[in-house]
Amino acid sequence: MSPRQQCLAYLQQNPPSTFEAALWIAAEHDEQVDFQAFHDQLATLERSIGAALPMLPATELAQPLLRQLAALGFQQDDAAQPKPQAAMLHKIIERRRGQPLGLALVALHMAKRLDIPLEGVNFPGHFLLRVPRADHSLDPCGGRRLYPKDCRELLLRQFGPNVPLMAEHMTTATPAAMLQRLSRNLRYLHQLNDDLIAALKDATRVMELGQANTSDYLARASLYQHLDCPQAERFDLEHALMLSEDPVQKLRLTQRLQSLPSGRAIH
User: Fold this and answer.
1) Which alpha helices (DSSP H) does 16-116 contain, by range?
2) Residue 161 CB contacts under 8 Å (≥ 6 apart), including other chains
3) Fold for the domain defined by 176-259
4) Which of 18, 82, 132, 169 has fewest C-beta within 10 Å?
5) Each residue of 130-173: pLDDT tens digit?
């Protein structure tokens, strides 16, 4: 099977194997992924963390787990020009640097291996973690506790004062949602680094992993535009138009569609 098929197969397992599926996303971009070496590194990491955790009930070990990961060097990648490696699991393990979602995937995998209850929170702009039914979230970048006031401040820093904290921001992330978000992150990073073919792979995977939104279709349409594929661009613009609820955006999309060549072409 191809890396894409492997990713989808792990996602369809019962229960889904989110971490392995995310590793196959990395393998789709890097043929040199050494799976055996990667799992050896994970086993060493698990032993190191397990030996350092305090003797506490499992429900109280999530924050110590995250703090131990930070003590071992796992930090947010804050490079001025972020690279795709910040979202690829094998590179995150190798470099001990990554985006919040990538660090969260490592923490979730370690928690699962060590029988520590932990779940992902699909918070906008900065992926979070949470012990089920807890009254606070945890920052995957170091383990800081975040209460509603802290989450509102995080939203303010990310998006400004016009985005209020809502219950939907604190929903538990499903495996498919995490992988879709990871794919969106990689799409952005590859496009930022001028690798449009890689970004196109990510953009298409986004749509295979779950329901795509207007922004997803517009992002892929932009890639097709740069790659000079007008018919594929038209397909995505038409879907974006159907999904859009913004009258101004709908007008602009209609005008853009009218400017595209109407003939059929193979790309």
Assistant:
1) 18-29, 35-52, 62-71, 89-95, 100-113
2) none
3) 1.25.40
4) 132
5) 999 999 999 999 999 999 999 999 999 989 888 888 989 999 99
